[in-house]
Design brief:
The protein has one helix at residues 38-66, and strands spanning 76-81, 102-103, 108-110, 113-116, 121-132, 143-153, 159-160, 165-170, 175-177, 192-193, 198-206, 213-219, 227-232. By secondary structure, the protein is mainly beta. β12 (213-219) and β13 form a beta hairpin. The longest helix has 29 residues, at 38-66.
Length: 235
């Protein structure tokens, strides 16, 4: 009896194994295929996930931009141009011609402008002149600009004029100017202005003889914006 253990030869039609891919595939045995429609289903799921992420990001960006904390409009004043008295005309307000409403504090106004605040209080400056304070003034013997501040109360209720603030500066570099207290220059009035009434206050600000540019900052009360009047005065 023969004990030869040599295995029988392999069939000639079996393809050789590819490098790195294991043993060759036997004839009649194809590798398992994915179920029909699986690739399409995966693609749809990926696209839907991407769309959901995009929608979430868009909602976050929109919330950050629109938000609830919207900026409120700044207080405004109305500026009316005053015609010099020499022309014989009245103010532009009398002829019902006004410049558009502007935001207080954004721009300076002319020395002859009239400022109308949100509380319907009007402030204007007039009667500019130059002088030198007396020996008994504070500060004494100081050149200054003298002018009149007129307050018109159209608010419908009394207005406390003592709350008004006035500050001055002069020169191209904005040198701070001292208020002048002298005969007829007593500072702010300690009184109220009734509804429909007005009050004129004489005021003086230090202004050296060589300087011509004058800046005057006025606020009618503690809650109102400060308006800046500015312009040139003759020497």
């Amino acid at each position: 009896m023969s004990h030869d253990s040599t295995p029988p030869p392999m069939p000639d039609n079996i393809p050789p194994a590819m490098p790195g891919y294991g043993p060759p595939t036997m004839p009649g045995y194809l590798p398992p295929q994915p179920p029909p429609g699986q690739k399409r289903t995966n693609t749809i799921l990926i696209a839907a996930g991407a769309a959901l992420v995009a929608a979430v990001l868009a909602a976050v960006v929109t919330a950050g931009v629109s938000g609830d904390g919207e900026a409120e409009a700044a207080p405004t004043v109305t500026v009316t141009k005053t015609v010099p008295a020499e022309s014989g005309d009245t103010t532009a307000a009398d002829s019902e011609t006004e410049t558009p409403t502007e935001e207080a504090g954004d721009d300076s106004y002319g020395l002859d402008d009239t400022i109308v605040y949100d509380n319907d209080v009007e402030i204007s400056l007039s009667k500019f002149s130059r002088a030198v304070s007396s020996d008994y003034a504070s500060p004494e013997n100081t050149p200054y600009a003298k002018f009149t501040i007129k307050i018109v109360n159209k608010s419908g209720k009394k207005f406390d004029a003592s709350q008004m603030t006035v500050n001055c500066a002069y020169g191209d570099e904005g040198q701070e100017s001292e208020a002048i207290f002298d005969d007829g220059l007593d500072g702010l009035p300690d009184t109220s202005i009734l509804a429909g009434r007005s009050l004129s206050v004489a005021w003086g600000c230090e202004l050296p003889k060589a300087e011509t540019f004058l800046q005057i900052e006025v606020a009618p009360d503690y809650e109102s914006e400060t308006s800046i009047f500015a312009g040139e005065l003759k020497k």
